[in-house]
Design goal:
It is a single chain. With about 300 residues, this protein is an alpha+beta fold. Helix content is about 20%, strand content about 40%. The strands form six sheets. Strands 2, 4, 5, 7, 8 and 9 form a six-stranded mixed beta sheet that branches. A five-stranded mixed beta sheet has the order 11-17-16-13-14, with no helix packed on it. A three-stranded antiparallel beta sheet has the order 10-12-15, with no helix packed on it. Helix 1 runs antiparallel to helix 3. The radius of gyration is 34 Å and the shape is elongated. About 15% of the residues have low confidence.
């Protein structure tokens, strides 16, 4: 009898401990994170690559241009990065806003096959847009033999507010020296500098606030030809409550409720209740039998 009673008490104690251990974990509504008795996970979650292609609505195929830059515009999925390529060479980028995009790009002399490609925050590429073929009649190219161009290996770069953002830009063609103007998109005016020779240079800037900024790079050479390059700069941080980290991935914090102890505790509770009920009936029956024997 004593052994049965001790077994019941032990089962009840174990069940109670398991149930109590799950209570703090289930109460994860607090803004403090991580909490005591909870499990916090922080990781980069690589979702699926974009599946919806952008479109090019402007310009139309067959158009002929005599001046640059031209405007390329179309539809896209909000939040994705749009990179525009001409003859498979990167010529500009912009972030899709409210389901559409628009940016200015340079063209090469002669035929240009334009395509827009979409990229997510992890730089995963989606499908290509429709191809639009246009022609640029470059009178300056005929006159001077070459045209200045500006390009970069990066369509989007980011830095923390207060930290220096360094961006490599390649100047080629035309005739040196070059005049370079960079508008970083944060309302602080344009940076002006002279570049003595063609090649790669590093342009630098410090953003003071988190945000996504449109950067416009303009280069002019000694012959008066000009180049235009639009890029996307990012001041890392929370923008309107949404985390933005410059295409370095998305940080997600998850609170995990440990339900396994509860699953284990529930059948133990039922077993303890059943044993307790049987013990109570057994005790009552023995008491009745003892009373009968005494009478």
């Amino acid at each position: 009898m004593n052994r049965l009673k001790r077994a019941i008490e032990m089962l009840i104690a174990v069940a109670g401990i398991l149930v109590i251990s799950t209570v703090p974990v289930a109460g994860l509504g607090s803004t403090q994170n991580p909490q005591s008795s909870s499990l916090g996970l922080e990781a980069t979650v690589p979702g699926a690559a974009p599946t919806q292609a952008a479109t090019i609505g402007t310009p139309a195929s067959g158009q002929v241009f005599n001046t640059i830059p031209i405007t390329v515009a179309g539809l896209c999925k909000t939040g994705l990065l749009i990179k525009v390529f001409s003859n498979n060479v990167f010529v500009g980028s912009v972030t899709c806003t409210n389901g559409s995009y628009s940016l200015k790009v340079d063209l090469f002399s002669g035929r240009n096959d334009l395509v827009a490609r979409v990229y997510d925050a992890l730089d995963q590429q989606g499908p290509d847009s429709n191809v639009v073929s246009v022609t640029f009649n470059d009178a300056q190219f005929i006159q001077f033999g070459t045209h200045v161009t500006a390009s970069s290996n990066y369509a989007r770069l980011g830095a923390d507010p207060g930290s220096v953002l360094s961006w490599p830009v390649i100047i080629s063609g035309g005739r040196s020296p070059y005049a370079l103007s960079v508008d970083w998109g944060d309302g602080n005016g344009s940076d002006l500098q002279t570049v003595a020779f063609a090649g790669q240079i590093n342009i630098t800037h410090t953003y003071t606030q988190a945000g996504v900024y449109t950067i416009v790079v303009k280069a002019s050479d000694a012959n008066g030809t000009s180049a235009y390059l639009q890029l996307v700069g990012v001041g890392n941080g929370k923008i309107g409550g949404a985390l933005n980290n410059g295409g370095q991935g998305t940080t997600v914090t998850k609170n995990v409720v440990l339900w396994q102890p509860l699953v284990i505790a529930f059948p133990l509770m039922l077993l303890a209740f059943w044993l307790g009920q049987r013990y109570e009936l057994f005790t009552i029956r023995r008491s009745i039998e003892a009373s009968r024997d005494q009478s």
